[in-house]
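Now for one record.
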Amino acid sequence: MNWHDFEIAAPELAALGRAAFEEQHLCTLGTLRADGWPRVSPCEVYFVGDDLLLGMMPNSRKALDLRRDARITITNGQTERIPRLGDFKAYGRAIEIFDQPTRDALADAQEAIIDWRPTDPFHVFALDISSAGYISFGEGARVLRWTSGGAEERLAHPDG
């Protein structure tokens, strides 16, 4: 499901993920290499229309991974041992976007936010979300999870 539908299905979880991604416009991306080993890469993320979009350099290893095997994991970037915005993870499939208006909208979003615009060729993928999770620590500690077809769930926190 696209990000908009995810926001309807799991509003609290989606709001936490959106806040984290909009603060940095970066994620840590997990893909599968051709030999089956995981690949972890930084990647920029932007909300455009109903989608969370990922832009990648032409023929980057992570883009080629996704073309071969669309399974994907993203998590918000962490710079502290106890992340201020918690730890959000989404799992699903990457859908490559060839539609020029959507590609242009991603380029517009990047230019507006970071004052740089990608030029063709570049890869654009939308996240098709199948499950997500979140954990935070300290004051307001909580654990949430959601899977496609299910309800957003609040789980017991491991700290207590």
About this structure: The helical segments are 3-9, 11-24, 61-68, 100-114. The radius of gyration is 16 Å. The mean pLDDT is 96. The longest strand covers residues 123-136.
